[in-house]
Specification:
Its main location: nucleus. The chain has 153 residues and is mostly helical. It has ten helices and two strands. Helix 3 packs across helix 5.
Length: 153
């Protein structure tokens, strides 16, 4: 964690306090923390799956979607009726989307949404670049969005 947080680029300046409390530096710390948490959870998922290969039934194209599906074979072996809006390969859609996002793979979450589109009654979401741009803007808004909210206070 320390290595991840020390990767934040600090610029030499005369007013250290002003630089460290700037929105750009704070957002970079948030990005690094988010990346650390996502990678840590993905490592936990990998260790769980590789520790239970028979039950996990890992297979298919390597990637987060298959990893999450295998993880759910271990952690959520039996679906509880009434707790899901739909299923993809025998697992609740919400669970697969949640764990894909928790591992930091938004494109895998989009893949699940596209697979379950007919069950969820939603329109197809945009392209890969649109998804990335929208989610990055949602998770980590740029300074200009904060400026309009906080400058009037």
């Amino acid at each position: 964690m320390v290595k991840q947080m020390t990767d934040v680029l600090l610029v030499p300046a005369s007013d250290t306090l002003k630089i460290r409390t700037s929105m750009e530096v704070q957002m970079e710390f948030v990005r690094q923390a988010l990346q650390y948490l996502e990678q840590s959870y993905k490592n936990y998922t990998l260790m769980t799956v590789f520790g239970n290969l028979h039950q996990a039934q890992l297979g298919g194209v390597p990637g987060t979607y298959q990893l999450v599906r295998s993880f759910l074979n271990i952690k959520l072996p039996v679906s509880v009726p009434g707790l899901q809006d739909g299923e993809v390969e025998g697992h609740p859609v919400w669970a697969i989307i949640y764990y894909c996002m928790r591992c930091g793979d938004l494109m895998a979450a989009m893949q699940v949404v596209n697979l379950a589109q007919h069950q969820l009654e939603i329109s197809k979401l945009g392209s890969r670049s649109t998804c990335t741009a929208k989610t990055q803007g949602f998770l980590l808004p740029p300074r200009t969005k904060f400026a309009s909210i906080t400058d009037g206070l």
